[in-house]
Specification:
single chain, OB fold (Dihydrolipoamide Acetyltransferase, E2P), Trna Endonuclease, Chain: A, domain 1, 2 domains, five-stranded mixed beta barrel, 3 helices, 18 strands, globular
Length: about 240
């Protein structure tokens, strides 16, 4: 892709500064010279973002926390873009890509069902594509190492189970896809992170060998336009053990 494509306009986005992470789902932020608690829905460790002084962007939240932290900007040199850590907005971005036919490998697809059951688990989507079903699991690749977006940044039993079910379905002649959303504006490819969870690292390679389609897209938050944009609809995927 040569030109970013707008996906979602974010209403009432406010700049903020991270003070500290309180727990897995809560971070203390400063906005308008006042401290507030903000909700985080990304279950990753996000250690490179949850540090004092890192800039971020929040939207109003209806829960017990006044705000929801949806984007962060740890790098100054990133062309006015920020990283989208909010998994709900990542999913909505994927859905918009499907609706607008922006992904070449899902051109003839529509969302048949959200959170469909696949064997003993629930995955993110069931797509209907040219009279065939494709089960799709979305994962947030929020970790940056050099020029790579990476997943996972911590162990995830749930993530392991999802990939195992995709493999099982592919082995039974079904079609499935594992799609990573790299919401980092300054990377050039996706790569699995062995140190985060060696079991998931192995399962990703097993998935590839068993016919599960491994895809990645790149999105970011355009600060000046308050819009989540699509930067790459087919981000290169690097699987070192199968090159």
């Amino acid at each position: 892709m040569n030109k970013p494509i707008p996906l979602l306009h974010i209403e009432e986005a406010y700049p903020c500064t991270i003070v500290e992470r309180i727990n897995r789902f809560t971070v203390l932020i400063k906005h308008d010279n006042k401290c507030h608690t903000a909700w985080i829905n990304n279950t990753g460790r996000l250690e490179e973002y949850m540090r004092k002084g890192i800039g971020g962007f929040c939207i109003p939240n209806k829960g017990k926390n006044k705000y929801r932290l949806f984007a962060v900007k740890p790098n100054l040199d990133n062309n006015g873009y920020a990283s989208v850590i909010d998994t709900l907005l990542q999913m909505k971005s994927f859905e918009r890509c499907i609706e607008e036919k922006l992904l070449p490998y899902f051109q003839e697809c529509w969302i048949e069902k959200r959170n469909p059951q696949l064997y003993n688990s629930y995955v993110d989507y069931l797509l209907r594509c040219n009279n065939k079903n494709i089960y799709v699991e979305i994962k947030s690749a929020a970790l940056q190492k050099e020029n790579h977006a990476m997943y996972p940044d911590c162990p995830s039993i749930r993530g392991e189970r999802h990939i195992e079910e995709l493999i099982r379905y592919a082995r039974n002649n079904g079609e499935s896809s594992l799609l990573f959303i790299a919401a980092l504006p300054w990377i050039k490819s996706f790569k699995p992170f062995k140190e985060g969870d060696s079991r998931i690292y192995t399962l990703i390679h097993q998935a590839y060998r068993n016919g599960v389609k491994i895809r990645a897209i790149q999105i970011a938050y355009d600060i000046s336009k308050s819009t989540i944009i699509l930067l790459d609809n087919n981000l290169p995927v690097i699987l070192p053990e199968v090159e």
